[in-house]
């Protein structure tokens, strides 16, 4: 499947994500396999990361990103982009970004996806929400300190471009 907007279930979104987060590397998150880094999971040893099975990674993505981000409550059109935001920025930051994209006031951008957030999210045209979420991601990445931007900025922008090209 090339169209990320068709990735409306966890399994379909995971298949899209793992196309990006594949293999083993050592990056700014330390030892990383399938996008699961030792920095994000400090209780995992380097060997545990290196030898991680895809099914283990899938379970972590389901619990810690899809469920924690409450992705299933999002409009189908934005589910993949929002899931990818949860993975790349963390669920709390992603929840705040989608609240901002949905037009909630700064005081309501609390990172809790409750009735007020869902009302605003569902009231907005999903295409507009998707574009605004992409914009929120760009603003977030470019607001990070120069060291982080220098290390990862090009990769983040390529990731967003990759997602946008698959819409």
Describe this structure in words.
By secondary structure, the protein is mainly alpha-helical. It has a single domain (4-165), classed as Chitosanase, subunit A, domain 1 (Up-down Bundle). Helices cover 60% and strands 6% of the residues. The chain has a 3-stranded antiparallel β-sheet. β2 and β3 (36-37) form a beta hairpin. α3 crosses α5 and α5 crosses α7. The radius of gyration is 16 Å and the shape is globular. The mean pLDDT is 93.
Give a brief outline of the structure.
Helix content is 60%, strand content 6%. With 167 residues, the protein is mainly alpha-helical.
Major sheet summary line: 3 strands, antiparallel
Query: In which range does the helix fraction lie?
Result: 55-70%
CATH topology: Chitosanase, subunit A, domain 1
If you average the pLDDT, what whole number results?
A: 93
Number of helices: 8
Rounded to the nearest angstrom, the distance between the terminal CA atoms is: 11 Å
Counting DSSP E segments of at least 2 residues, the number of strands comes to: 3
The rough form would be described as globular
Radius of gyration: 16 Å
- Structural class, by secondary structure, is mainly alpha
The level 1 CATH classification is: Mainly Alpha
Strand residues, percent: 5-15%
CATH architecture: Up-down Bundle
Note poorly predicted spans.
none
| Widest β-sheet, arrangement of strands | 1-2-3
Q: Please name the fourth-level CATH homologous superfamily.
A: Chitosanase, subunit A, domain 1
